[in-house]
Amino acid sequence: MWRHNPPHAETIKRVQDGMIGEIMHMRTYRMEPGIRLIQRRSGENELAHQIRNYHSFTWTNGGFFLDWCIHNVDILCWAKNDWPESAIGMGGRTTADIPGQVFDHQHVEYFFKDGISLNGYARHMAGTPCFYTDYILGTKGMAVVLGGFKIMKNCSFNSSNETVWAYKGPTPNPYQAEHQLLIDAIRNDKPYNEGYRAAQAALAGIMGRMAFETGRQIQSQAAHDLQTKLFPGIDEITWDTKPPVEPDSNGRYPYAIPGKTVIE
Questions:
Q1: Where are the domains of the chain?
Q2: Distance CA 62, CA 262 (A)
Q3: How far is Cα of residue 91 from the mean position of the Cα atoms in its chain?
Q4: Fold adopted by 2-236
Q5: Percent of the chain with pLDDT over 70
Q6: Which of 72, 119, 187, 249 has the smallest number of CB atoms closer than 10 Å to its CB?
Q7: How many Cβ atoms sit within 10 Å of the Cβ of residue 231?
Q8: Contact criterion met (CB below 8 Å) for 35 and 166
Q9: Interval 148-168: pLDDT, tens
Q10: Residue 99 contacts residue 37 (beta carbons within 8 Å)
Q11: Are the beta carbons of 210 and 108 closer than 8 angstroms?
């Protein structure tokens, strides 16, 4: 939906028009104060419990980075007008006592074919503050995409960094704007297909997850060719189906361990 948000579009347009010069580096932050655990209902089986706690399991949401940070990565790739070729990363579970599989902190560095990199930082830990924004650093300045929608004179964060442009236009609901375009296309029989860039954004997110779960550098082609199925047979699922992961006797679920986990 951010692709249909006027503040995003206007900021990205100025970046692509050269207002900050050549892009040298990009970084994004998706810091959240924890994921709420939904308690098991009386008589609820394991499959239903995991579906209701979909933020906590890789097979239900692809992991926190793919689920939440895909928006940030997509926007910065839009600004770059390119998709990353490889990624390295790190992450883990410091709150391993909370049931689930997903890491509670992740860092992914993406590399583009021209050598420019994108650093993505994600975290969800109870008691920590929320920080959700994107920065694009150029040879002539810096763009603050989310959390400001402005162009700064240089790349520093000190008080003397002058704002040379800031978005002052309308801020409609981006979800509504997105659906208005789709509904208009349906009613007026117009082509409307965002499948390619949506798939590319998902691929970038999967590549990032593979990087920090394995501790290895992952190429985009390797992520594209991945044959792993997070839930084999999901097309035939019923409420009596066993989920692909189940808790041990201590109520803990299996999760990735960098350096040991292999994804093929």
A1: 2-236
A2: 16
A3: 14
A4: Dihydrodipicolinate Reductase; domain 2 (3.30.360)
A5: 99
A6: 249
A7: 15
A8: no
A9: 899 999 887 777 789 999 999
A10: yes
A11: no
